[in-house]
Amino acid sequence: MHVGSNYSIDLESTEYILQRNAVPVTNNPGLARIKCPLFVSIGRHGFFSTKELVNIRNSFRMVEKHNKHSYLYEVEGTHHVHINDPEILAGPINEFLIKHYLK
């Protein structure tokens, strides 16, 4: 928000604006339209708070209802787990690619 506003909003103020104005979406019909195979990985110690992780899981459940080829992997690590510990994701990514793209 700070950068996106061309720095017109102070960095310290962005947290309060987001807390005041951002609300979790409980019904996002666009998620039901995702039909391609989908691989999502999240480091448990990344940028998301516990509350945000719950919202992500709930949103992903909506995707899963309409797309049997969707996979959410929560792994130990930070947002940069794919860089710092690529072996953690190598197996799941390879399985996903083999299953959906090397038929």
Overall description:
The chain is an alpha+beta fold and 103 residues long. It has a domain at 32-101. It is 47% helix and 12% strand. The protein has 4 helices and 2 strands. The chain has helices spanning 11-21, 50-66, 81-84, 86-101, and strands spanning 38-43, 70-75. The chain has a two-stranded parallel sheet. The longest helix is centred in the middle third of the chain and has 17 residues, at 50-66.
Layout of SSEs?
Layout (H helix, E strand, L loop, with lengths): L10 H11 L16 E6 L6 H17 L3 E6 L5 H4 L1 H16 L2
Parallel strand pairs: 1-2
InterPro entries: AB_hydrolase_fold
Short description:
With 103 residues, the protein is of the alpha+beta class.
- Termini distance? 42 Å
Order of helices and strands: HEHEHH
Which structural category fits the helices and strands?
A: alpha+beta
Largest sheet: 2 strands, parallel
State the helical fraction. 40-55%
Low-confidence region ranges: none
> Got a strand count?
2
InterPro entries: AB_hydrolase_fold
Key attributes of the depicted protein:
single chain; 103 residues; alpha+beta; two-stranded parallel ribbon; 12% strand; globular
